[in-house]
Structures are given as C-alpha cells and as structure tokens.
Design goal:
It is a single chain. This protein has 4 helices and no strands. The chain has 167 residues and is mainly α. The protein has one domain.
C-alpha cells in the first residue's frame, strides 16, 4: 500500500490560510450587511425626523441642520460601504476613501457645532471649548483636503516614463 506523498496532502499552513480566508469573507459580508442596515436606518430616521419637525413646527434652521447632519452621515456610511467593496475586490486598503470619510465627518461636526451656537452662545469655559474645537476643525479641513490632493497626485502616472527623446 502506498503512502500518500506529503506534497499531495494540503499542509496545515494551507488549511489555516483557507480557513482564515473563509472567515475573512464572512466577516466582510457581515460588516457589509450591517453597514447597509445602518444606511437604511439613517435614511428612515432622516425622513421620520423631517416629517416630525415639520409637523411640530420646528425652526427652518433646525430642520435644515437635521437633514444636513443625517445626509452627511449617510454619505459616511456609503463611503464606508464603497471602501469595504474595494477592499474585498482588490485585497488592498486604499487611503483615499478614509480621507473622504474624515473630511465629511469634519464638515458634519462643523455644521452641528454651528447649529448649537445658533441656539444660544455659551459663556466662559464652554465658549472656550467650542472655539478651540472650531479651531481644530478649521485646521483639519485643509489638512485632509491637502492629503486627498497628495494621494490623488501620487496615483497618477506620468504620460511618458524615461528620458526625453531628442529630435
């Protein structure tokens, strides 16, 4: 009776790799389903909040801030879904989508803090904290925009590679 060659049997490393790969697919699929559910809940919550505020007679600024806040949150969830799909398809993590998510999150926070200031300006330490937060958020916007610009430029390849050709 012949013993099977060790090259014919899958090794422990290969079995472990396949098992981890299968787990990775299940994990990504689960995260994708949860993100999709979160996106649906954000949209439903936005619609119900909009209807509730209109029926309640909420101020136009409050309604607009609610809608903008939720729309930006939906964009963040959508960008996370796009990034997850990209990672599953290419098996690479891209930096650019996370920079966009950060930029959207910063703009969203600026809108929320501005809306809070519209309701009434705090005094003392609370005002100092809000102004400090505005300053940090104000620095984050150009920093993230610059990072997006640098990443997008680094992905471009020059039209011609090599030394110039003499005529």
């Amino acid at each position: 009776m012949e013993q099977p060659n060790s090259a014919d049997r899958p090794g422990l490393t290969e079995l472990l790799g396949r098992g981890l790969g299968s787990f990775e697919v299940v994990l990504y699929a689960s995260v994708g389903v949860l993100l999709a559910a979160a996106g649906v809940l954000v949209l439903v919550g936005t619609a119900s909040g909009l209807i509730r505020e209109i029926h309640r007679g909420g101020a136009a600024v409050d309604v607009a801030v609610l809608v903008l806040d939720r729309v930006l949150l939906a964009l963040i969830v959508g960008e996370l879904l796009y990034t997850l799909r990209f990672v599953v398809r290419t098996h690479e993590i891209a930096v650019e989508p996370f920079l966009y998510i950060g930029l959207i999150a910063v703009v969203r926070r600026i809108l929320i803090v501005t809306a809070q200031l519209e309701r009434g300006a705090p005094a003392g330490r609370a005002l100092t904290n809000i102004l400090l937060e505005f300053g940090i958020l104000g620095l984050l916007v150009p920093a993230l925009a610059g990072a997006v610009l640098l990443v997008s430029r680094s992905r471009r390849t020059p039209a011609s590679v090599g030394p110039p050709v003499a005529s």
